[in-house]
Amino acid sequence: MSEKIKSEMISRRRAFSLLGLAALILAVPPTILTVSDAEAQTVGMTRRAARRAGRHMRRVERRTHRHMRRVARRTHRHMRREERRTHRHMRREHRRTGQ
Length: 99
Prior knowledge:
Elements: H1 12-27, H2 30-33, H3 43-97
């Protein structure tokens, strides 16, 4: 009699999870479970969407201009570096030849 059939045994963890699931199903009102296809569009929501789109566009423009400034700085830095190298090389050649 001390032997239990495995299908009849249920752990405490499993029992509490089933109890919690049942409580959740009973606690959720049916209105939350139904999904409506219609979206309410109020004046405030439309204004908010317009402001959000404007912010997005300004953000994209800032990022683009920032990228362009960085590329320009990088290019000019590279050009200055090359110019210094060229002049350095010319000075060394000048000292080496003694002219």
